[in-house]
Amino acid sequence: xxxxxxxxxxxxxxxxxxxxxxxxxxxxxxxxxxxxxxxxxxxxxxxxxxxxxxxxxxxxxxxxxxxxxxxxxxxxxxxxxxxxxxxxxxxx
Length: 92
Description:
There is one protein chain. By secondary structure, the chain is an all-beta fold. Helix content is 0%, strand content 52%. The chain has no helices and seven strands. The protein has strands at residues 26-33, 37-40, 43-47, 50-55, 58-66, 71-79, 84-90. The strands form two sheets. The protein has a four-stranded antiparallel beta sheet with strand order 3-2-5-6, with no helix packed on it. The radius of gyration is 22 Å and the shape is elongated. 10% of the residues are buried. The model has no long low-confidence stretch (mean pLDDT 87).
C-alpha cells in the first residue's frame, strides 16, 4: 500500500494559503449642500443625495464636485462591512 502524497490531493498540503474571505459591502447615505457629483476614484457614483449606495467595506476616499460653483471636497469615510454610514457635507 502506498502512502498519500501532496500531489495526490492529500490533506495537509504545505504552503497553500487559506482561501481569502471577501468582505461584504457596506452602504453610504450622503447629502451635500449645495449638491455635488460623487466620485470613487475615477468612477462617478452619482449626484447627491446618495441613499444607501453600496460601496466596498473599509476606508474609502470620495471626491465631491459641484461644477456650477467650482467647489470640490475630499471626504474619507469608513464603510462598515454589511453596515450603513451617513454623512452630510457643506460644500465650500
